[in-house]
Predict the structure.
Amino acid sequence: MIDATDRQILEILQRDARTSNAELGRQIGLAASATLERVRKLEQQGVIAGYTARLDPRQLGAGLLAFVYVRTAETVAAGPTEAKLAALPEVQEVHHIAGEDCFLIKVRTATTASLGRLLRDRIGRIEAVRSTRTTIVLETVKEDTSIPLAADAADAAGDADHDR
C-alpha cells in the first residue's frame, strides 16, 4: 500500500528522476537512508518501473507525431501482429483497443514521406494488417507521462475496484 510519504516521493521523482536521496529526504522530512529504503521498496514492488531521460524528438529528427489505427484480420490472438508493431523503432506505443480497429499506435518520424514509407512498406506488409487510419498531430498542447497521485485519485482508484 502506498502512503502519503510514498506519494510525495513519487511526485518528486516524476518531476525529476535525478533527484538525489538526500534531496528527496530533505523535501519530505526524512533521513536520506530512510528515503532510500522507501525508494527501493517502491522499485521492488514495481511501482517505480524504471527511470528515463525525456528527449526532444524535434532535436533528434523525429518531429512528426502521428497516431495510427490498425485493423487486422486476427480475431482473438493478436500476439504476432502486436509484437511486429512493437518491434518497429518508430513506434513508441502499441495499444490493443476495443472497437472496429484492433490497435492504436503512436509513431514518430522525421517527415510525412518517412511516415508514408513506414505505413506502406513496413506496417502495411505485416501479413495480418488489413488497413490503417492515420492522424497527424499539428501541435502538441500537453504531453505528460506523470500519473496523478493525489489522495483523492488513489481513493477514486479504490472506488473503481469496488465497482467491479
Notes: DSSP finds six helices and four strands in the chain. Strands lie at 64-72, 91-96, 103-109, 129-136.
